[in-house]
Amino acid sequence: MTTVTLRRIEARDLDDWFALQDQAMADPFTRDGLAAEFDNHLSRPTGLFRKGELIAAFLGWLVVDELQIFQVATSANHRRQGLGRQLLTHVLRRARAGGATTATLEVRTSNAAAIALYVNLGFVIDGERKGFYPDGEDALLMRATLV
Ligand SMILES: CC(C)(COP(=O)(O)OP(=O)(O)OC[C@H]1O[C@@H](n2cnc3c(N)ncnc32)[C@H](O)[C@@H]1OP(=O)(O)O)[C@@H](O)C(=O)NCCC(=O)NCCS
Predict the structure, then answer these.
(1) How many domains does the chain have?
(2) For the domain that residue 20 is a member of, what is the CATH number?
(3) Is the pTM of this model over 0.85?
C-alpha cells in the first residue's frame, strides 16, 4: 500500500475537502462552513493524503480538555483499508498531547460503520439525543477517555 501523509487541511485543500465530505457525509458542511474553520483557533481540520489526494478527512475542535468531533469521512472507494482508524488514532494522540482528556461526538443511530469504528477506538455510548438530526433520526452520544 502506498504511504499516506497526515497533515492539517489548509485553504488550498478546500475544494477537495468539500467534495469528499459532501459525497461521504449524511449531514455535510457547506463550503462556507468549512472555509470558516480555517479562521477558528479551536479547529483541528486534519487530512489523510495518498499521492497528494485527500482520501480521508477529520474535523473537530479542541476545547480546553475536550476534543469535540464533528466529522470523520473516508472517500467511498477507499473504505475498509484502515484509513479512518489511522486518521482518528493520529488525531486523538495529537489532542491528548495538546491537553485533551476526553473526546466526544454524536452519530446517527443507523450509522453502524461509524459506531463500529468509534467502539474499535475505545469510545463508549454516553447517552442519546432524540430527534437530533434534521430528518428526525436520533443521535448516540459517544465518549472516549484519552489516557
Ligand atoms: C465511518 C467511516 C469513516 C469508516 O472509515 P474507514 O476508513 O472505512 O474505516 P476503517 O477501514 O479504518 O475501519 C476501522 C474499523 O471500523 C469498523 N468499520 C469500518 N467500516 C465498517 C463497516 N462498514 N461495517 C462494520 N464495521 C466497520 C471496523 O471495526 C473496522 O475495523 P476492521 O476493518 O479491522 O474490521 C466511513 O465508513 C465513512 O466515511 N462513512 C461515511 C461518513 C460517516 O458516516 N462518518 C461518520 C459520521 S459521525
Answers:
(1) 1
(2) 3.40.630.30
(3) yes
Please give the number of the atom of ligand 1 that sits closest to the Cα of 87: 12
User: What's the pLDDT score for residue 1?
Assistant: 62
CB atoms under 10 Å from CB of 6, counted, come to 16
Contacts of 44 (CB under 8 A, 6+ apart): 8, 58, 59, 60, 61, 62, 67, 91, 94, 95
DSSP letter, residue 81 = S
Ligand 1 centroid from CA 117, angstroms: 5
Q: Which residues line ligand 1 (CB under 6 A)?
A: 24-25, 56, 72-74, 79-85, 107, 111-114, 116-117, 120
Domain span at 46: 4-145
Measured between alpha carbons, how far is 123 from 135 in angstroms, rounded to an integer? 25
63-88 pLDDT per residue, tens: 999 999 999 999 999 999 999 999 99
